[in-house]
Amino acid sequence: MLDILKITIIFIAILIFLRLKWNIGYVLLLASGLLAILYLMPIPTILSTIKSTVADPVTIKLFFALTLIKSLEMILREKQVLSKMMEASRNILKRKKAVIISMPMLIGLLPSLGGAYFSAPMVEESTKGLKMSQEEKGFINYWFRHPWEYILPLYPGILLASAITGIELRSLILVNLTYALLIFITGFLFSMRGVKGGFAKKVERRKRDLWSFLPVLLILLMVMAMHIELHYALGFTILLLFVFYRFSPKEAFRVIRHGFTPDVIVIVFGTMLFKFTMENSGAVAHLSQYFKDVGIPILPILFILPFLSGLLTGITVGFVSSTFPLLMSLAGGAHLNEITFAFASGFTGVLLSPVHLCFVLTREYFKADIAGIYRKTIPGCAIIMTGALIVYFIL
C-alpha cells in the first residue's frame, strides 16, 4: 500500500508541474529526485543510475535522433519541401482528413525514437488555414502514429511479448488488430469533426511535388528495409540534402547547430533518468509484488499491472518485460486472451503516460495544454479497453 501512495505522489507531482507548463525534462528530473528520496535510494545507487543514464546506448541514440530530426526539419522547412509534400498529399489523397493524418501514420511506421517530432511540423503544415486548436493538432499527431505498435513486428514490444509468452506472433498480431482499428476509428471520433471536403486540385504540380517525399521515403527505406538505425539514416539523408542544395560549410554548420539545443538535452536526460530510477528504485517490482501478495483476481491484475507499468514508464518494452513474466506465473501459463488483454492494458497506460516520449515531444512542439490532449486520449483509451474486454471474453 505504501508503494501505491509513493507512486501516486510522484504521478500527481508530474501532472501538476506539466499543467504549469514546465519543461517536461525538468519535471522528470524533479520526479526522479523525488522517487530517489521516497525509496531511500543509497548515494552509490543514485550515482550508478545517473551513470547508466548517460552511458546507455538508447540515451545516446535518442539524443542524436532528436537533434538530427530538428536539423532535417529546418532544411525541409526552409527549402519549402514540407509545403510541397502537403501539396502532393492534397492532390493524391484529395480529402482533407486523409491528408492531415497521412504524415503521422506514415512516420509511425518507423519504430523510431522521436518520430512524433518528425511528423509534427507536417501536421502543422497540413492544418494551416483550418480552425483547429493546438491541442487537437497535438492529438492527431500523437494518436494516429500509434496503431502500428499493436501489430507491426518492427516494434520490439510485440516481439518481446511473443518471445516471453511463447504465443505465436501471427496470432498475437491478428487479435491486436482490433485495437489498431479502434485507434484509427476513435481518432476520427474525437478530432477533425469540423474538417470537411477536399483541397483544391492542382494537377499540373502533382508529378513535380511527388519528389518532395524522397527524403522521408529514403529514411523509411533505410530503417525498415535495410535495418539501419534512425540516427544514421537521418545523418545520411541530411548529408545528401546538403549536397543537393549546395550548402556552404557555414550554412551546414548553422543547420546542425539548430538541432543541438538545451531543451533536447534536458528532455532526453530527464526521460531516461526517470526510466532508470523507476527500475533501480524497485518501484515497479514492489507494485507487482504487492498485488500478488494481496491475492486480487486475475482479470484486475491483467489490467492494473501492465497499465501502471506503462503509465509510469511510457515505454511498451518496459511494461512487457516488467510484468508479463509475473502475469504468466499468476495466471498459470500464457493464454492468448489474457496476454492480448494485458498488452492492450499496458499500451493504454503508455498512451496515457505523461512521460511517453511521443506525448512529450508532441506537446512540446505544439505548446499544447496537457489537459486538452487528455480530453481526447482518455475517452479513446476507454473505448480501446472496452474492445479489449470484449475480445478477452470472446476468446
Tell me what you see in this structure.
The chain is mainly α and 395 residues long. It has one domain. Helices cover 78% and strands 0% of the residues. The protein has helices at residues 2-19, 24-38, 43-55, 57-78, 81-93, 96-107, 115-126, 134-143, 148-151, 156-165, 169-189, 206-210, 214-225, 230-244, 249-259, 262-281, 283-294, 298-313, 316-331, 336-352, 357-366, 370-394. Helix 4 (57-78) packs parallel to helix 7 and helix 4 packs across helix 15 (249-259). The longest helix has 25 residues, at 370-394. The mean pLDDT is 83. Pfam families: DUF401.
Report the mean per-residue pLDDT as an integer: 83
> Approximately how much helix is present in the residues?
over 70%
Low-confidence stretches: none
Please write the string of helix (H) and strand (E) elements: HHHHHHHHHHHHHHHHHHHHHH
Based on CA atoms alone, the radius of gyration comes out at 21 Å
Keywords: Membrane, Transmembrane, Transmembrane helix
Transmembrane segments: 7-40, 60-77, 98-120, 169-190, 232-248, 260-278, 298-327, 339-357, 377-394
Protein name: DUF401 family protein
